[in-house]
Design goal:
It is built from 6 helices and 2 strands. It is mainly α. The radius of gyration is 29 Å and the shape is flat. InterPro entries: Putative_zinc-bd (IPR047675).
Length: 235
Amino acid sequence: MNANDPMRAPGGRGPRARVQSATGGGNGPETPEDGRCTARTRSGGRCRGMAVTGATVCRMHGGAAPQVRAAAQRREATAEFLRTYGDVDGPQEDPAVVVSRLIRQAAGHVAWLLERVQETEADALVWGMTSEVERQGGEFPGVDTTYSAAVNGWVRLYGEERDRLLKMCDLAARMGVEERLVTLAEVQTKIMFEAMNRALDALELTAAQRARVPKVMAGLLRGMAAEGRPELPAA
């Protein structure tokens, strides 16, 4: 593609560069506070168009591209999740990690509440005390207790937390949390193996010792995955 190609963006950037700019590589900032496109015009000034919601550029500067729309939707879902449930550990942690942890915590709450519901007698699930009034004076002082048909407190709390968990999972799916966690795991794995290889180089192992490394690592990983403890091969 040459410099005179009409598909190139102002400043010599082609469609791919425009998409990358609009999506921020999948981790860019949300829509600017003033809502305007952040791209530059041929004269060097800032574009006067309005950015696509969740993106940083307008439709003319790549905001209509499918990749940009998908990234914008992920950002909007992320913002909604953190607005609703809180970014408990601050901006230094990847939102996908925060969301994953909050969902695990919510799932634990739901499981605990379900156990309480299952422990409740069947009749108590829909019938129970609905009011209790203490009478200090009068001819018959004491406590007036009223029983009637009512949803048990454990059932109500379980339903509320279950609905909350389902909403969290829906937002997480829209955020692309699973894909993001896979990407983070891949990066962490590469870093780990790079560090391991450097450590092995520094140890100056013999050829025979170095040849045993893959077998030892395979045994360790199998053991940790199956039983939570390493499985070392026979010497």
